[in-house]
Amino acid sequence: MPDDAYAARARQRAGTGIGLLLVLVLGAALLIARPGDEDARPDGGACRARTVGSWQPDERLTGEFTRYGDDASRTDDWTGGDGTHSVRLPDGRVLWLFSDTYLGPVYGPPNPHGESYAWRDATAPLVRNSAVLMRDGRLESTLPAPLFADPAPNQWRWPVAARVEPRSPGSAEQVVRVLLWVRTAGPAPWIYGVPTATEVATLSLPGLRLESVAKVLDEQLVPDPSRRVLFGTTLVAEDGWTYVFGGDDGRAVSRPASHAYAARVPEGRLADPAAWQYWDGSDWTAGARPRAVLGDGRRRGVGSAFSVVRDDGAYLLFTMATGTRGLTAVAVYWACSPQGPWHGPVREFSPELPPGQVAAYNPQAHPVLSGEGRLVLSYDVNWLETAGAAAQLSRNVSLYRPRFVILRPAPAR
Fold first, then answer.
1. Residue 362: phi, psi to the nearest 5?
2. Domains in the chain, ordered, with CATH?
3. pTM of whole model > 0.85?
4. Torsion, Cα of 251, 359, 68, 82 (10° steps)
5. Which of 86, 266, 337, 344 could join 333 via S-S bond, C-beta 3.0 to 4.6 A?
């Protein structure tokens, strides 16, 4: 492909919709939940409000992705990407899933501008998705990329949350199920793709061979793209169910906050569209149009990518804040059940960012690396302005890699 054509293609792709859709629109100040709020769990018990007591950078994990991305010994591996989801495999390895991904070599500093940044050539390959394997805390290899081929011309797949589950209910054989977002090229404001469908891919174990892809929710008949819901930004497995969360892209059309939605699927049936049940506002119903569990379109809500984890009897939700702080701050909500009611935000915190016109987005919790009162959270970093983004990401490779923090959840006081 000629250099100018590739540059145009890279500018279109650089920074996924999982990311900058979260930070484009300004809004009002945040509402804060009352300390000490409590709510009833579905089993009749009670849970207390939760928040983040403290946080600190996870320099070791951030540094591991720097080490691997800067390694010039391979030319077909990951050197940068966003999306950043993880799942632990039965043999102890961790599979990391990324959306738009740079491959190819990285060159040490100084870069051609004389700056002390590692850099990549402007013609470096860029693919829609990738997967990287980690063993014992060390990144080892990149699977042949893209792992998930484009479903049709002008469409692509971004992998999001994943889990290991039985091939079918009660089966002793396990597989990896990966949620996929299908997007279609579109005009502004859909420069990162029009939401199209949610799919589920099945990967074999231990070889991680792609076996099949099933469409579980087709949104093409929803006329307003900002009302289309893509599921899989995060999931929680509990009591024989997989609770899958999704969002719309309200921010793409200048609404300050998007909405969160919830679905549930019996364990072993993620790839079965008939098994999906959606929260319809009063119950879990197969075939129902999902109703929002969080978001008022103004001060409270989420970006299209957010994360939910279980913590001490409650659920914690992490998303970029609304308003101007959505460029830099992560907001925290809590609930006693996946369908809510969701309370908050009860806390905001601002992770470290490199200098320049950059933004944080896509906060993702990684329970597979958490424990003993600590929770590992990643966030992606990208150049804020779409114009010239490809050049900036080549000029400084650290701008398009995940960074990590260690959180200490605590009761809200």
1. 55, 60
2. 3-411 (2.115.10.20)
3. yes
4. 10
5. 344
Residue 33: the pLDDT is: 36
What distances in angstroms separate CA 389 from CA 27, 160, 410, one per listed residue? 24, 23, 38
- What are the backbone dihedrals phi and psi of residue 63, each rounded to the nearest 5 degrees, phi first? -65, -30
pLDDT tens for residues 252-286? 766 678 999 999 999 999 999 999 999 999 999 99
CA distance 290 to 286: 10
Q: At which residue do the structure tokens 């600590």 appear?
A: 374
* Nearest C-alpha neighbor of 18 from the set 244, 278, 258: 258
**Which region among 67-76, 139-148, 309-318 has the lowest average model confidence (pLDDT)?**
67-76
| Nearest by Cα to 141 from 175, 100, 103 | 103
Residue pLDDT, tens place only, 185-197: 999 889 889 999 9
Place of tokens 């996870």: 58
